[in-house]
Specification:
With 324 residues, this protein is of the alpha+beta class. The protein has helices spanning 10-21, 26-52, 114-131, 165-173, 182-194, 242-256, 264-270, 277-287, 306-313, and strands spanning 58-67, 70-80, 83-89, 94-99, 102-105, 108-109, 138-144, 149-153, 162-164, 195-196, 224-226, 230-233, 238-241, 288-293, 296-301, 322-323. The chain has nine helices and 16 strands. The structure holds zinc ion.
């Protein structure tokens, strides 16, 4: 069973929000594509795992665990038979060669080495358990869920650390008969205690380059007609309530200016004063946590992102959204 949701990462949400409000540089467009592709691979992994079934297991997805002054990102942590498996998911496609400790595609060396990444992640986890005086076995695997991935290597030592798409269901099925005891619950609690936000992402964008205003959630157009409770898109006819727009604005703000406090002024700037300050304030009180620092008040969005907030609050909204 999954112990948490798989959400789009802060990096992906940053570049998505940025792409809505500015023409991305070639470098940013490349990053957006990489993060989108990685997320697709993770969702594919989940789908295949769902098809095999996992009620008897504990699974954490997409967590950053802090250990001491550093930490590591985990795509998936499976606990089965009181043993831990760390899965690093790589949505590679095409033909790769593995030679002298490096992945090579089209004669170019891939800068990341997934074996090193998973090894590091396993090491960090060992450290967390050792500090808590718990002995546990941890195995690391690099998972390649893409059908279109081919790997060639003369180094036969790597295959035991890899699961390719063709073998993925077999890999999941081997957990079928396993069960967890009380020890596993202890492992789960300890992992939970170490989950934090990834501290290494600093997404602050150049606020001057970002287009201000509100945009359509359906087609992305900025040309909206104002009615009392809605904005209607001139291009596609989508009508979205003011509240839906505010959710999107707060989610965008969170990831455009990641880690920065949100204030009434900064949000009014982002939306080009399209809403009255009372509308912004009401949304803050309803959807944000309030923080006071000296005589400054700032707000943090309570939800992971727009999709998460919309899913949870849609049914309580007074005005619905629809395509005209
Ligand atoms: Zn539209």
């Amino acid at each position: 069973m999954y112990l948490n949701d798989r959400n789009a990462s802060a990096e992906l949400l940053h570049y998505r929000a940025l792409s809505r409000r500015e023409v991305l540089s070639a470098e940013d467009a490349r990053k957006l594509k990489i993060y989108e592709n990685g997320f697709l691979g993770e969702c594919l992994y989940d789908k295949l795992f769902d098809e095999t079934g996992h009620d008897n297991l504990y699974i954490f997805r997409d967590v950053y665990l802090a250990s001491g002054k550093s930490g590591a990102q985990y795509d998936s942590i499976i606990i089965a038979n009181d043993v831990i498996a760390v899965n690093e998911i790589k949505n590679y496609s095409g033909e790769y060669y593995y030679k002298n400790g490096r992945f090579i595609k089209n004669n170019e060396v891939v800068p990341d080495n997934p074996f090193t990444q998973v090894d590091r992640a396993v090491g960090k986890l060992y450290r967390i358990f050792r500090n808590a005086k718990i002995t546990v076995d941890i195995k690391g695997k690099v998972i390649f869920p893409n059908d279109d991935f081919k790997l060639y290597s003369e180094d036969n030592s790597i295959w035991k650390n890899i699961v390719i798409r063709m073998d993925l269901k077999k890999y999941f099925r081997q957990f079928k008969e396993s069960y967890n005891t009380e020890k596993a619950e202890g492992l789960v609690s300890l992992i939970r205690e170490h989950i934090t936000e990834n501290p290494y992402f600093n997404g602050s964008s150049n606020a001057e380059r970002v287009s201000t205003g509100l945009y359509c959630g359906n087609c992305g157009g900025f040309n909206l007609i104002k009615t009392r409770y809605h904005r209607q898109c001139v291009s596609c006819g989508m009508k979205e309530s003011n509240e839906t727009h505010m959710l999107r604005v707060m989610s965008d703000f969170k990831y455009l200016f990641y880690g920065e406090g949100m204030t009434r002024k900064s949000v009014l700037e982002l939306i080009g004063n399209e809403f009255d300050k009372k509308v912004v304030y009401r949304a803050f009180l309803k959807y944000c946590d309030v923080h006071k620092k000296g005589n400054q008040t700032y707000y943090t969005f309570k939800y992971h992102d727009f999709d998460d907030a919309y899913k949870q609050t849609k049914k309580n909204m007074k005005h619905r959204d629809y395509l005209t």
